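Minutes, project check-in
Item: structure for the 214-residue chain
Input as provided by the requester:
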Amino acid sequence: MRRILFAPLLCAFAACTIVPGVADPASDSPDLQWRPTTSFKDAASYADAIQVWATPEDINAWIGARFEYDASRAILLSETQRNQSAQLPIYPPNDFFVAPSGVCVDLARFAVETLQAIDPGTKPTYLMIEFAPVTIAGNTLRLHWLASFKRDGKYYFFADSKRPGRIAGPYDSTREFIDEYTKYRGREVIAFRELDSYQRKQRTMAAKQSRERR
């Protein structure tokens, strides 16, 4: 059984001084000021959800109502822990639907793969952001994942563990979103990439780390 842990736990690892409209830079846990109160389409199973949901907004509304952040898993998936032990699997959408707690990459995978199933024409994509690293309880965290899609030539971003239930957009480019998001998060963005798989980036990072250790 997964442990569902909330933002206060992560705040215990670092000082949490949050200015309205600006995120706590030391945490990927949900910013409660963005927590939505809109209704959503529920379903008895993930298979049913695929039949009931038709748009990114349907997925987004469910995320806003159901997602819980797991701070202990964030530590286990930190760069420090990954270098010391076997890599943890990212929850597949069906499992995530049953118990919707996790971290940014779990949420992004759920959104991208679900949107690919219900509306592939929106070209669902992963957005990986590399921030300047922060250290929490001796563990280094730097990567953050979101989902994106396109509509009428514009870019939209959602499935953000920091702002679950919020769709950001429209934007003319991903760069435009990154510039705005950098100010909101209060963290320096070192790099960002639009990817078709979270796995490919993980393998690339692992290979890079292996070369650096030689």
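Outcome recorded: Residues 7-213 form one domain.
No further action items on this chain.
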